[in-house]
Inverse folding.
């Protein structure tokens, strides 16, 4: 696996510390959503009684949240300061 480096240049001053805090806050919110969805999808009563379309919607949301978390964590890991 070959990883490439990307350099970004901004026309104005960007406060990386502030951006890192904002992204970290988004990660916390998504972590909470993922945790809640996992609990819901592990609940046998929910799986038994909820319409299949709702269960599938929650599963799809969980997938999307996990993708977003990976992206945000990747950005956090790439910010140097």
């Amino acid at each position: 696996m070959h990883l490439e480096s990307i350099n970004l240049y901004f026309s104005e001053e960007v406060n990386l510390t502030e951006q890192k805090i904002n992204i970290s806050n988004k990660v916390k919110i998504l972590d909470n959503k993922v945790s809640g969805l996992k609990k819901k999808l592990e609940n046998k009563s929910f799986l038994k009684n909820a319409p299949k379309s709702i269960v599938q919607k929650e599963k799809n949301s969980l997938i999307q949240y996990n993708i977003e978390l990976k992206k945000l964590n990747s950005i956090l890991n790439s910010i140097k300061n």
Remarks:
- The chain has a mean pLDDT of 89.
